[in-house]
Amino acid sequence: MKALITGAGGMLGTALCAELEKQEHTVFATDVQEMDVRWQHVIRREIRECAPDVIFHLAALTDVDACEREPEEAFRTNTIGTQNVALACQAADIPMVYVSTIGVFDGSKNEAYNEFDEPNPQNVYSRSKYEGEKIVRRLLHHYYIVRAGWMFGGGHEDKKFVAKILELAINQDELQIVDDKFGSPTYTEDFAQAVIYLARTGWYGLYHLVNTGTPCSRFEFAQCVLEYAGITTCNLLPVSSAHFPLPARRPRMEAARNLHSDLMGLTLMRPWKKALREYIKGG
Questions:
Q1: 111, 164, 173, 196: least CB-packed within 10 angstroms?
Q2: Under CATH, what is the fold of the domain 2-153+184-212+255-271?
């Protein structure tokens, strides 16, 4: 398989490229310097030169609060950029894998969301990603829309929740962690393996792709991080998200169930606690 990856320089893109190469696929890794998805002619030129069998579209603005402050830029990159990639896939008759977010839901549900629940995004970032989903469905027949959960991974390049908790816990004896937001932690390496497998099935459609296990709050997630890291010198205090006002509204519930793949007889992801333990302990 020859795979073209947009947004290859990000945390997930790095894991996906590494896994594709490990499986001996041909990888064309591009980031904004090589292929700015906001410009359709650039995408089409890259496709002509690479002649890929599939495009994994990861390029996006993912800073939720920055998207809230600059909505036009969010829609230009996340929505119009996705439209440009989809149109190029349509013209070249190439399947597209579009990575979206569980955040497209409003969070009012009291249990994990599945693929048959109705999206109702509550912030600019999620709306821009959901509009991208609608464009992909409208323009293409051969596509995979894959919604990701709370991502962790990246090793030494990790700048997300796990790395921040570890850094703070080493230097402080007490941390306040939100306990009223819930989600499904998802390991980048597990996601990469699963999305590659899915892309080879030919079973096109919309899929949730998160690590399995009971959904957790940010507080519970942080508890596991410190436990697996063996840090006992930092006390975690559960607090309401009202303690940390942010520009963009976050859904209360961002947990997901991989119902579509379950119904298809695919077991693609392991429990998040097992993945997290492996990640923190270095495999």
A1: 173
A2: Rossmann fold (3.40.50)
